[in-house]
Amino acid sequence: MREKTDKIAGTFDEEIIRVKNLTKDYGQNRGVFDISFNVKKGEIFGFLGPNGAGKTTTIRHLLGFSRPQSGATEILGLDCWKHPEKVQERLGYLAGEIAFPDNMTGWQFIKQIAERRGMSDLKPAQDLCEYFQLKPHGELKRMSKGMKQKTALVIAFMHDADTIILDEPTSGLDPLMQDRFCQLVAREKTKGKTILMSSHMFDEVEKTCDRVAIIKQGKIIAQIGMNEIKHNKDKEYEIRFKTKEQAESFAKLKFRITGEKFEKNRVNVLINNAEWDVVIAEIHKRNVEYMSEIKFTLEKYFMNYYKEDDKNEAAV
Fold this sequence. Notes:
Elements: H1 2-9, E1 15-27, E2 30-40, E3 44-48, H2 55-62, E4 70-75, E5 78-79, H3 84-88, E6 91-94, H4 106-116, H5 123-131, H6 145-157, E7 163-167, H7 175-190, E8 194-199, H8 202-208, E9 211-216, E10 219-225, H9 226-230, E11 235-241, H10 244-251, E12 256-261, E13 266-271, H11 276-284, E14 288-294, H12 298-315
Parallel strand pairs: 3-8, 3-9, 6-7, 7-8
Antiparallel strand pairs: 1-2, 1-4, 4-5, 9-10, 11-13, 11-14, 12-13
Helix pairs in contact: 4-6
């Protein structure tokens, strides 16, 4: 059976995960609506949005836990609803809401999952416990949220799956462990792993991901490569003028003004290379105390896109 699965996977043109026009409508504007994206082999793909935006609903379809109303999800060339067992045996997975048995220790649960996966060597699990400073021999029901999250991460990564799906992977982790998680993802990427990671935490997505899809109210409103964020052609600057009047007069010009604090004589403006000379000429006509570039981040892109989407919805 595995031989047949591998043959199907080989025809996949390096697209490991596919979501094609997926719709699941729970009513009252809840669910996902005609969303599409793909994740290529060796890619770390971020699925970014606030809680309730549709990230977990999408992942449940990828795991074969939920049947699409329309559209489809595929992993390794297999329809996730029609072949959930075959899909799940090829995956590492961390759920957004973890339900652990109360009558086990963390290590007993790790061993149980390892046995289900046919793992005879538990050293990878032991190494991951050490990496995340996890002492897994305590009872699960007495573990903190962070300890349970570490246990779930060990289970997701211990069997060295080539494809991994992570739903809010650093929930409950302290900053040190969040950083260790990002380092682990970077290490797995060097092995050619394919990882889909849903999150609402900009920093971890920015550190780890190659591309990002932004989801809002069940609809994907943007997809962007992280290189486009890091090397954005538009640069934002904060300019502080000598007087309030100079700041106000500059803000009235036909530039892309992104912020105003006239009481502090400050104006923020977006500039690309084609606009640079014209903007600088106007700046030189005024007394400027300082001009400072504002780093363009994923969070800023996200917030700008959400605001722009809100404006478009209001205009309809």
